[in-house]
Automatic annotation (TrEMBL):
It comes from Streptomyces milbemycinicus. It comes from the Bacteria. Pfam families: DUF1684. Residues 1-24 have a biased composition (Low complexity). This is DUF1684 domain-containing protein. Residues 1-26 are annotated as: Disordered. InterPro entries: DUF1684.
């Protein structure tokens, strides 16, 4: 799993903003700049996986491309062989999705959806199977360094957030998915605190995953333990496009 792109950093729970609603509006503005950037979620127009054993030649891939196209390399583990699989990604700063993008709808800021939870590190490298949206039911094991325990609306949850290049990333689902929010679930970065046994979940900063902007991503989906029984009416909902342009999802 490569680092989730195009999502700006969040303030830490140890330094809460003086005006949380204003800080959220600033986060929203940074999100817009990020997803519309030259290598943002809306710019990804092709993910090209190479034959087994072949490594990317970036110079060759970039040859003949217009200046507004960026080419990068990526890798993953082949689900069948377990061997490294290499690929190329092509990002177009003038993609149709960027040209037609209007906004990402979001629920109004709600302080009631800023929740504190206990965090229980798990010794060793525990791996949890996450189904991915483009793996036809297959799963990829991701490192989950600890359990997040909290109570929401009287129900206890033990959530699995995986290590996304040093940051805990929660992939969660709720009854709004497919109705008012992106159908495959949403993402949320978990905020650490000075107390190693406590974390903060600000669901106002839940965001549409990269695969909600481009079908060239392969995003993890919420496992059973990360599905809430009540609607999480906080955070981003769906991307909105102009002129009848159809979103990827």
């Amino acid at each position: 799993m490569t680092r989730t792109p195009a999502t700006p950093d969040q303030p830490t729970a140890d330094q809460p903003p003086a005006d949380p609603a204003a800080a959220w509006e600033d986060w929203r503005a940074r999100r817009r700049r990020s997803v519309t950037s030259a290598t943002g979620n809306l710019a990804l127009v092709e993910t090209r996986w190479l034959p087994a054993g072949e490594r990317p030649d970036l110079d060759a891939a970039r040859a003949g491309q217009p200046e507004h196209v960026t080419v990068t390399a990526l890798a993953r583990t082949d689900l069948v062989t377990g061997e490294p699989e290499h690929g190329l990604r092509f990002w177009d700063a003038q993609s149709p999705a960027i040209r037609h993008f209007e906004r990402v709808d979001a629920f109004p800021y709600d302080p009631a959806w800023v929740l504190e939870a206990s965090y229980h590190p798990v010794p060793g490298a525990r791996r949890v199977a996450f189904e991915h949206i483009r793996d036809n039911g297959g799963t990829r094991d991701l490192v989950v360094p600890g359990d997040i325990a909290l109570t929401v609306d009287g129900r206890d949850y033990t959530l699995s957030a995986f290590d996304d290049d040093g940051t805990l990333l929660l992939v969660f689902g709720d009854p709004t998915n497919g109705d008012t929010t992106y159908g495959a679930g949403r993402f949320l970065f978990v905020e650490r605190t000075a107390d190693p046994g406590r974390v903060r979940l600000d669901f106002n900063r839940a965001f549409v995953p990269p695969c909600g902007f481009s079908d060239q991503y392969n995003c993890p989906m919420p496992p059973r333990q990360n599905r809430f029984h009540l609607p999480v009416e906080a955070g981003e909902q769906r991307p909105v496009f102009r002129d009848g342009f159809l979103a990827q999802h």
